[in-house]
Design a protein that fits this description.
binds 1-deoxynojirimycin; 14 helices; globular; Oligo-1,6-glucosidase, domain 2; six-stranded antiparallel beta sheet; seven-stranded parallel beta sheet; alpha/beta; binds calcium ion; Immunoglobulin-like
C-alpha cells in the first residue's frame, strides 16, 4: 500500500491564510423541468490531457486519446469533462503557462482534433469545459514578450512591473506560491515583474482595462467554438495591493525554505469579484458555466465566490472538502462527525455545493484515506458519500477505479518543478497525474508505443477500467451504480439533505427527499462492523420500509442495518400504504 503524507496543498501556503437571479440570454438557456440550468445536475469529470489516452503513441496523452474514450465516459455517467489546459505552452507548469489562448498545443493535437472531440462528445451528451488560466500567461506569450521589450512598450502595463527597493532588492517581501521571491528581475529594462507562481508565469495586470477586454474576448472565442464553460484557475490571486505593502510574516518555513507569510496583500483582494462578475456576464450570454478553483478557509469565504447576487462563479469548488479528516502525519481518515459538520455548514450557507475529493494538485483520494486493509472499500465509501450529497460533483479521472498515487521515489525521476525544488519535503504532483489505467496490459493500455511520460504503478494490473468493468464488486461498478442513481432518482437528483442519527460517531446517515420520494444513505466511516437503526417517523415517514438499491458490505432493513468496515447501504424509502 502506498502511504504518504498529504501535501499541505493550498495556494495560501500556511494555515493562517494560505489559502438566481442573473438574467440569461433567454434564447440560449437550457432549463430542466424544475427550471434549473443544465450544469445543476451534471456530473463533471476532470481530464488531465497529458495522462488520459495517447492516440499517437508518443508517450503523451492527447485530444484524440480523449475522443477514443468517450464511450467509457458516457457509460460511467459523465455529463461534462473539464480538460486542464491544452493550449500551446512551454509546459513549464504542464500547460498552466499559456503562450496562445486560442489554439491547441501541437503535442495534444490541433483545433480540428478539438472540433472532432467536441462533436463526438456532443453525440454522447457530454459537454466540454476548458481551463482558463486567468491570473498569468507564459513568459513566452507574445503579450509578455512585447511587455518585456521596453519600458515604453504599449503592453508594458499588461503585466505587473515595478522598480526594486534598491539594487538587487525586490519591491517587497512577497513570496511565490512555488517558492522564492515573487519578483523576477529583468536585466534589460531594469525592473522586476511579479509572478504569483513560477517566474515563467508572469501575472497579468487586471487593473489594465485592455487586459480585461483581451481576456474576456478569449472566453468569447471558445464559447463561439462550442465550449460549455471554464474552470477558472487561481482566481484568488488576480489582484495585488497597489501599495505593494509587505505581507506579515509568521514563524516557520515552508517546503521551499521561505519564511511563512500571511498572504494579506497578494491574495483574495476584493477587486477579484468585479472581474468574476464580468466573466459571468459573458458566460451567461452563452448558457455556459464557470467553475472556480476556490481555495478558501471557511464556508463564508467560499460563499463570497458565488457572488452577493449570484452573479459570480456558478460552481466555486469546495476544496476544503479535500482536507477534512486530517490526522497527525498528514494522512486522512473518514470521520463521520467532521464530514457531518462540514456538510451541515455548506447546507446552512444556502448555496449549491460543489464537492471535490481530489485533482491534479492533490494526492489521490484513494491514497490519502487508504489504511492498507480496506483500500477499495474506503474508495467506494467516499464515492457513495460525496456523489449522493446535494450539489454538483467534480470527479477526477481514475478516482472511479480507486487509482492511487504513484509518487517518484528518486529526485531524478521527478517531472513537476515544485517537486524538484521542494524535494524531499515536497515531492511534486507527478504521483496524482499518472496515466489513466485502462487495461491490465503493459502501461495500462494508455498507449502501445513510447513509454508514457509518467510510470504506471503495478496496481494497474487489478485497478483498471477493463478488469473492474467485469467485476460487479469493483470500485468502478459502485461508481457506475451511484452515478446512475444520481441521474435517475428524483430524491438524489433534486432532493433536500436531511441528516440522521447525528450522534453516531461512526456511521454517516442521511435522507435525500424530494416530494414523496426519499432515499436513505448509510455509510460506515469506520474499519469495524457497525449497526445503524432508523425510525423515520420524525421525518414524517411513519412505518417506512427501505428497498436497498445499492449495498456493499451491508445488509438488513431499516430497523437494523448491519455494515461491515466502510460498508454502504442505500435504500429507496417508502411508507406503508
Ligand atoms: C492551479 C493549477 O491547478 C495548478 O496545477 C497550477 O500549477 C497553478 N494553478 C498555477 O497555474
Ligand atoms: Ca500523444
Amino acid at each position: 500500500m502506498l502511504r504518504r503524507n498529504i501535501r499541505a496543498w493550498s495556494w495560501r501556503g500556511i494555515a493562517l491564510g494560505v489559502a438566481c437571479a442573473t438574467p440569461l440570454a433567454a434564447a440560449a438557456a437550457q432549463r430542466d423541468a424544475q427550471g434549473h440550468a443544465w450544469w445543476r445536475h451534471a456530473v463533471f469529470y476532470e481530464v488531465y490531457p497529458r495522462s488520459f489516452g495517447d492516440a499517437n503513441n508518443d508517450g503523451l496523452g492527447d485530444l484524440s486519446g480523449i475522443t477514443q474514450h468517450l464511450d467509457y465516459l458516457r457509460d460511467l455517467g459523465v455529463d461534462a469533462i473539464w480538460i486542464t489546459p491544452c493550449y500551446p505552452s512551454p509546459q513549464v507548469d504542464f500547460g498552466y503557462d499559456v503562450s496562445d489562448y486560442e489554439n491547441i498545443a501541437p503535442e495534444y493535437g490541433s483545433l480540428a482534433d478539438f472540433d472532432r472531440l467536441q462533436a463526438e462528445a456532443k453525440k454522447r451528451g457530454i459537454r466540454i469545459i476548458f481551463d482558463f488560466v486567468v491570473n498569468h500567461t507564459s513568459d513566452k506569450h507574445p503579450w509578455f514578450l512585447e511587455s518585456q521589450a521596453s519600458r515604453t512598450n504599449a503592453k508594458r502595463d499588461w503585466y505587473v512591473w515595478r522598480d526594486g527597493k534598491g539594487p538587487t532588492q525586490p519591491p517587497n517581501n512577497w513570496t511565490s506560491i512555488f517558492g522564492g521571491s515573487a519578483w523576477q528581475y529583468d536585466r534589460a529594462t531594469q525592473q522586476y515583474y511579479y509572478h504569483a507562481f513560477y517566474p515563467e508565469q508572469p501575472d497579468l495586470n487586471w487593473r489594465n482595462p485592455a487586459v480585461e477586454t483581451a481576456m474576456l474576448d478569449v472566453t468569447r472565442w471558445w464559447y463561439t467554438r462550442g465550449v460549455s464553460g471554464f474552470r477558472l484557475d487561481a482566481v484568488n490571486t488576480l489582484f495585488e495591493d497597489p501599495g505593494l505593502r509587505d505581507n506579515p510574516t509568521v514563524p516557520g518555513r515552508n517546503a521551499y525554505g521561505d519564511q511563512n507569510q500571511v498572504r494579506k496583500y497578494d491574495d483574495n483582494l476584493p477587486e477579484n469579484h468585479r472581474v468574476l462578475r464580468e466573466l459571468r456576464k459573458v458566460t451567461d450570454a452563452h448558457d455556459a458555466v464557470l467553475i472556480g478553483e476556490t481555495w478558501t478557509d471557511d464556508v463564508q469565504q467560499l460563499k463570497a465566490y458565488y457572488g452577493a447576487n449570484h452573479d459570480e462563479v456558478h460552481m466555486p469548488m469546495d476544496l476544503m472538502f479535500t482536507g477534512l479528516g486530517r490526522v497527525p502525519g498528514g494522512h486522512q481518515r473518514l470521520d463521520a462527525p467532521t464530514f457531518r459538520r462540514h456538510v451541515a455548514a455548506m447546507e446552512a450557507s444556502g448555496e449549491w455545493p460543489v464537492y471535490v475529493v481530489s485533482n491534479h494538485d492533490i494526492p489521490r483520494v484513494a491514497t490519502r484515506f487508504a489504511d492498507g486493509r480496506h483500500d477499495d472499500a474506503i474508495a467506494k465509501a467516499i464515492g457513495a458519500f460525496y456523489l449522493t450529497l446535494r450539489g454538483t460533483p467534480v470527479m477526477y479521472y481514475g478516482e472511479e477505479l480507486g487509482m492511487q498515487n504513484n509518487d517518484p521515489q528518486r529526485k531524478e525521476d521527478v517531472r513537476d518543478p515544485i517537486g524538484i525544488k521542494g524535494w524531499p519535503t515536497e515531492k511534486g504532483r507527478d504521483g496524482e497525474r499518472t496515466p489513466m489505467q485502462w487495461t491490465a496490459a503493459p502501461d495500462a493500455g494508455f498507449n502501445t508505443g513510447a513509454k508514457p511520460w509518467l510510470p504506471v504503478p503495478p496496481s494497474a494490473r487489478t485497478h483498471n477500467a477493463q478488469t473492474e468493468g467485469q467485476d460487479s464488486s469493483s470500485v468502478l461498478s459502485l461508481y457506475k451504480a451511484v452515478l446512475k442513481l444520481r441521474h435517475e432518482n428524483p430524491a438524489v437528483r433534486e432532493g433536500g439533505y436531511v441528516p440522521l442519527n447525528e450522534g453516531d460517531p461512526n456511521v454517516m446517515s442521511y435522507l435525500r427527499r424530494y416530494r414523496d420520494a426519499a432515499v436513505l444513505v448509510v455509510i460506515n466511516m469506520s474499519g469495524e462492523d457497525r449497526t445503524a437503526t432508523f425510525d423515520l417517523s420524525a421525518q414524517g415517514l411513519r412505518g417506512a420500509a427501505g428497498r436497498p438499491i445499492i449495498q456493499s458490505a451491508a445488509s438488513g432493513d431499516l430497523s437494523s442495518v448491519k455494515l461491515g468496515p466502510y460498508g454502504i447501504f442505500i435504500a429507496d424509502v417508502k411508507t406503508a400504504p
